[in-house]
Amino acid sequence: MRLAPQPSAQPLRLVVLLLLAAAVSTSPVLSTGCPDRCVCDDQLVVQCAGQHLTTFPVNLPLATRQLIISNNRIVELPPLALNYLSDLVYLDCSNNSLTEISESTFGNLRKLAYLDLSFNTLIRIEDRTFGPLASLVMLRMTDNPGLSEIHQDAFVENAALQVLDVSRNNLTAVNITSLIALPTLRSVGLSGNPWSCECDNEDLCLWVHLEGFKFQGFISCSYIVGLQLRTLCHQTLGSWDYLFFVVIGFVIFAAVPPVNFQDCHEVQLDCGPTESV
Ligand SMILES: *[C@@H]1O[C@H](CO)[C@@H](O)[C@H](O)[C@H]1NC(C)=O
Ligand SMILES: *[C@@H]1O[C@H](CO)[C@@H](O)[C@H](O)[C@H]1NC(C)=O
Ligand SMILES: *[C@@H]1O[C@H](CO)[C@@H](O)[C@H](O)[C@H]1NC(C)=O
């Protein structure tokens, strides 16, 4: 049996639309002007870097395509104001005081291709945070010293993602299941995190070795440590595991281009002495 349509749905929608229209016509975020202390150009670039801002700028042109609010002390990205900017392609929020990004923060930014959240004070990333960003190509989220958790499904919907940099955070583990599935991912920055050498990073170790060319810099978690982790994490090795070793070994020697050792100055995944594993 089909559910009858809710009799109140249509009027309710109308009310919501009217309210939205009212909000739009009075909203300070919608204007053709330019926010205080920012510079706006006719290419729809709004530049507000280093202006001692503590709150997100108001009075942003509705058609803004690039917004640069780096080097301020902004503590929050207000979802309502941000989501009016549906043409936004480039958003640089680096070097602020952001501690939290809510599920609705980026809800309407479907054209956003570049997002920089580096040098903030983020602590964790939830699963839906980046979900709406269907066009996101590059995400920089480095140098958040307390960032210790990224939900395993945080990037599931970012099918356009090519470059992800989570260097110099406080990450000990990352579940790579959804990263592996991203079709165009070609570069991942992992350096400067306190990666653990426990079984939960076994897959990360092997992935790094299998696709070393994707990783900026070099990861010290060697193929051997990866294999040792696999041996230790699977108390008894089945025939599948031996097959796995053979396949992995073959792929490494046959297919992986050499890692660029010029970028290898940073030891990233500090797996330490194998006895401690
Ligand atoms: C962050 O911004 C401040 C100004 O608010 C500036 O002095 C500092 O150098 C910037 N830090 C980085 C890492 O860019
Ligand atoms: C990093 O995470 C650990 C727990 O994994 C925590 O004890 C430590 O305080 C965190 N560091 C910072 C700077 O928040
Ligand atoms: C990693 O995440 C996937 C879902 O994305 C989940 O099925 C799997 O159990 C997780 N692995 C670990 C080791 O937590």
TrEMBL record:
The keyword Disulfide bond applies. GO terms for cellular component: voltage-gated potassium channel complex. It comes from the Eukaryota. It is a single-pass membrane protein. Residues 1-26 form the signal peptide. It holds the Pfam family LRR_8. The keyword Membrane applies. It is found in: Cell membrane. GO terms for molecular function: potassium channel activator activity; transmembrane transporter binding; voltage-gated potassium channel activity. Its main location: membrane. PROSITE patterns: PROKAR_LIPOPROTEIN (PS51257). Residues 33-66 form the LRRNT domain. Keywords: Cell membrane, Disulfide bond, Ion channel, Ion transport, Leucine-rich repeat, Membrane, Repeat, Signal, Transmembrane, Transmembrane helix, Transport. The chain crosses the membrane at residues 237-256. PANTHER family: GH08155P, LEUCINE-RICH REPEAT-CONTAINING PROTEIN 52. This is LRRNT domain-containing protein. It comes from Gasterosteus aculeatus aculeatus.
